Amino acid sequence: MKIGMFYVNECHDGKHDRAYREMLEQIQYGEELGFESVWLAEHHFNEYGSMPSPAVAASAIAQLTKKIDIGIAVSILNFNNPVRIAEDYAMVDILSEGRLKFGSGRGYQPKEAKGLGISMENSREKYWEAVEIIQGLWSSNESFSYYGRHYQVEDIVLTPKPIQERIPFYYAAISAESFDYMVEKGAREFMVTPTLMVLDEVMRYTKQTRERLIQKGITPDILLNLQMHIADDPDEAVRNVEKEMQVYFNRVLSLIPGADGQPVPKSYEQFAEVAKTFNSSMDIAELDKAGIVLLDNNKNAIDRLAAVEEAGITNLSCWFRMGGMEHNKVMKQMKRFAEEVLPYIKKGSAQKTGQ
To answer: Which residues form the Luciferase-like domain (predicted)?
Structure first.
């Protein structure tokens, strides 16, 4: 299992120059520590995430690093013209010398869609049309045309082309329905996170989906994104991040469909159910027990991560910086994870592959 880092890059004090500087320093340090990838999330109009253009951040990271993969988790395809998305990330692939891993989603925050003047109706249909256009432009050696219900593209030759013959293309799968889409579409890569389901349920769907894809002749590359913190014991791990995690969960739960009794767009009903389940007095320790986060000592963390690898996870993105956590605290946690957990996960993965 390959181990990386994840960033939405929350910024609660408005000092985005500091937030970006710290993120870049952490990523450079992560590469030195042995992390193999970094994953960036697109968000708009609030302190929950400060990367409206992950392509810009990815290009900066490409110039500051030498070998880590640069992943997008995710680019919200419905928020931009798919031709422009294809162009931007072709440039990222070139600037990174072929290190791009592209993750895609349809978006879920009504405030973002409203701010961009985009309807959330028919979002899944629009998303899959955008997927076909981006993949078509990247793979076609001649002019490409597409005539869909929502997008039409005629005789376009993408210039420049990506370096990679095929850019890994991850789909976000967070609901039971989306796992079925992974099988229907023959997904070679997809990503999961315990958001709408607890971890055991996510892993059950992941394992089942992997088995169904293998029956179709596809062995998928599967990314798990997980918030985590390692300490001497589980209680200390909870105490260390309880404040930051309360900030994070309170903020994100105010942004999802159905928050504060707002209307819920069709196909986003599960998000609204999550909004009803949680409240401002949520117990962070209970979230850990449910596997929604990983807050533990090093030995238990190794065992828990070995279990997700057994379920078929091939890539893990570690979310260390959540809730506006202080820079030094993040750096210390990255170092501790790299020293106390990472070698054992890599050793176990090597033994499984006979290396």
So the answer is: 1-314
